[in-house]
Amino acid sequence: MAVLDHKIDFAVILTVSKANPNGDPLNGNRPRQNYEGFGEISDVAIKRKIRNRLQDIEESIFVQSNDRQSDQFNSLRERAEGNAVLKEMVKDKKKTNEDYAAAACKEWIDVRSFGQVFAFKGGAGKGVSVGVRGPVTVQTAVSVAPIDISSMQITKSVNSEPGEGKGSDTMGMKHRVDFGVYRFNGSINTQLAEKTGFTNEDAEKIKQALISIFENDASSARPEGSMEVYKVYWWAHRSKLGQYSSAKVHHSLEIKAVNDTPKRLEDYEITLDKLEGLEAEVFDGR
After folding, report:
1. What is the pLDDT of residues 1-54, one digit of tens each?
2. 97, 55 in Cβ contact below 8 A?
3. Cα 165–167–170 angle (5° rounding)?
4. Contact at 8 Å (CB) between 161 and 16?
């Protein structure tokens, strides 16, 4: 498989309807919001969803969430030490950190995509401290307009323990965004792709993961259909460095609300400026 030989930029527009796209654990799990009232979804949450989609198509993933675990390992250290090649490298003092990183990138698509820090203590000089910089970068998703957050109390109608009296007791609060349109940008760097072995085929898998990022992602906070990818914009440059900077490419796409109280997708306007020599592929989400 050929290593990625051209720079790629991308942007994703998504909608949220009566869901909590990314709760803030330091704020009662309310949807993340900046000081100006715009909603946010962290880059970490987005990469988690990309990893899950890649895992759905049976790609080998290093950073697996506990509820999506597909092997017998319960920690990152166990997963790293469970790889026979990496385990032998730790024992072989002739092997360098670069050798370790190359083997890890070959084994796990998320390592060669996003990078990873392998930092595990060990006795007798057998510890590991290896950093990998990945070529795929993802920005925080931000809502196009300030969001409105609704909150409701949750009650239970069953007894948790024997002998409890009957009745509804308050369990906590649930929060949701009634409607919002969010956008996030990203890029894939060829120089780092060469170091990690990230291929053209890997880039295609990332693109397909973005198009279907909310499939198999339902939860109480995000019911089926409440999160939807509207459009994915994919710019494949003609060279390793690209014809334009990522900032200029991302700025060529603009989305704005056409009124002060947008409540549906039709209340937003999307414009895409043409860049000479660089066409954007546009995909509908699914």
Report:
1. 799 999 999 999 999 999 999 999 999 999 999 999 999 999 999 999 999 999
2. no
3. 115
4. no
Stated as kind and residue range, the H or E segment containing 156 is strand 149-156
* 259 secondary structure, DSSP code: S
How many whole angstroms separate alpha carbon 280 and alpha carbon 286?
19
CB 259 within 8 A of CB 246: no
Task: Quote the CA–CA distance of 208 and 56 in Å, as a whole number.
Answer: 12
Q: Per this entry, what is the length of the chain?
A: 286
Torsion of CA 155, 159, 164, 166, to 10 degrees: 60
Task: Note whether 144 and 268 are within 8 A (CB).
Answer: yes
φ and ψ of 64, to 5 deg: -100, 140
The whole-angstrom separation of Cα 280 and Cα 274 is 8
pTM for this prediction: 0.92
| Residue 87 CA to its chain's centroid (Å) | 29
